[in-house]
Amino acid sequence: MKFIDSVYIDNQVDGLTTYVVPTKIKDVITISGSMLGGAVYSKEKNSRLSPITASMLDKGTADKSKYDISNILESIGAEISFISSNHHINFSAHCLRKDLPVVVELLAEQLRTPEFSSEELSLLKKRAIANLERSKEDTKKQALIGLLGHLYPIGHINHKNTIDESIDLVSGVNLSDIKKFHQNTFGLGSINIVAAGDVSSEKLPDLIKNSFKDWGTQKLIELDKKGDANKRDRTTTSMEIKDKTSSDIYIGQTINITEDHEDYYDLMMGIYILGGNFSARLMQTVRDEEGLTYGIGSSLSGCSYGVNGHWYTWGTFAPKLVEHGIKSTMTQIKQWYEDGITEQELVAKKTTLNGLFNVSLDTTTGLVDKLLSNAEKNRKLTFLDDYHHKINDLDYQSINQSIKRHIDINKLTTSIAGSKA
Fold it and tell me: What pLDDT, on a 0 to 100 scale, did the predictor assign at position 43?
């Protein structure tokens, strides 16, 4: 599809943009939206404020109990959900075309006038703490926390708290802080709403306007997006988690680029060839040829919204194979770094990534998510239309130069979590 010709954009309300994509699907509408206000916007006070606030949006409003809301949605077969990501408060809805007015009105009510009851907060905190306690046994999560805790200082957007620190933060959330966070953070200013399916390019914007037009404006804190990462060094951290049948490792390093850097797609593709899918080098060698692991991969992360990120390689190994697994993984990383990728590998992965992009547009959910992410990053629709060109124009020699330019394999951090052999 050609996005620039298929998407209707509406700005009737200042601080709120609506994107409408009519499709051939009959009677069903999928909605996805967001506003700035994720965990990084509550980090100064308590990074758990945003996720818990988002979790309370469906627990009742000033005029409706959570049971009233549930009954309304069940009676029309609709869904509304909320979640907090690192940068955004996200919401989504699914409904029949005839029920769109009810769903939009209810969505606005939940965003604008949540009840925030102390009883619901207590239940949410207990559930969140129980989930965090269980995650102490998650070797992959603990290894990632170890990596990011070493790569970034406390306060950096990409820093990750330990499980115990997160439990303390959840325990410290109170109703007064939630109400204040909601009052300051929720409102017009950065809202994007995308709808696809059997939807009118005129009706939805009018419904949105009537439900949101007189809402106040967000008062967001200023983020330090250029905060320095910790200095690169070669180090290994480990956490013992007893009685585990496997251990997880992360090998990673910060990189001084964002998604908008001219080398981003070169580096992304190079790392994808190393470990992006089942046909990537790491899976073909460490898993298929050597039989050391069921899962291994490599990725570029934390580079969105003007923040410099990192790259990592992850793998899971039996405790007695951890040392062997790390050695084998590093052999592949060194060969990838020193010899680079081949033109044949690049041709194959261009086909893969272009195909994945096309497949992501085959459902209304995938379509609205792609459009919303593009809007959140303040990109024009032409960015999506040009995606295939960005991928097809990549050159293997340029990719190899970018790998050498941005990566130093002599200063990699290794984080291990699991049982000792």
Answer: 87
CA triplet 282, 285, 290: central angle to 5 degrees? 130
The whole-chain average pLDDT of the chain stands at 96
Structural tokens at position 357: 């992009």
Task: Note the pLDDT of residue 291.
Answer: 95
Cα angle 153, 175, 159 (rounded to 5 degrees) comes to 10
Q: What residues contact 84, with CB distance under 8 A and at least 6 apart?
A: 37, 38, 39, 50, 51, 53, 54, 55, 90
Helical (H) or strand (E) element with 414: strand 413-418
User: Strands 28-36, 247-254: parallel, antiparallel or unpaired by DSSP?
Assistant: unpaired
Return d(Cα 147, Cα 416) in angstroms, integer: 9
Q: Which two tokens stand for residue 106?
A: 């209810």
Query: What is the rounded CA–CA span in Å between residue 165 and residue 150?
Result: 15
The answer to whether the beta carbons of residues 157 and 308 sit under 8 Å apart is no
User: Shortest CA distance to 371 belongs to which of 357, 354, 352?
Assistant: 357
Contact call for residues 114 and 57 (beta carbons, < 8 A): yes
* Closest listed residue to residue 41, CA positions, set 226, 228, 225, 227: 225
pTM score, two decimals? 0.94
**DSSP secondary structure letters along 72-116:** HHHHHT-EEEEEE-SSEEEEEEEEEGGGHHHHHHHHHHHHHSB--
Integer angstrom CA distances of residue 370 from 195, 344, 393: 11, 29, 21
Tens digit of each residue's pLDDT (9 = 90 or more) over 123-141: 999 999 999 999 999 999 9
- Phi, psi at residue 274, to the nearest 5°? -65, -45
pLDDT at 225 over 90: no
Residue 53 pLDDT: 97
Between CA 175 and CA 181 the distance in angstroms is: 10
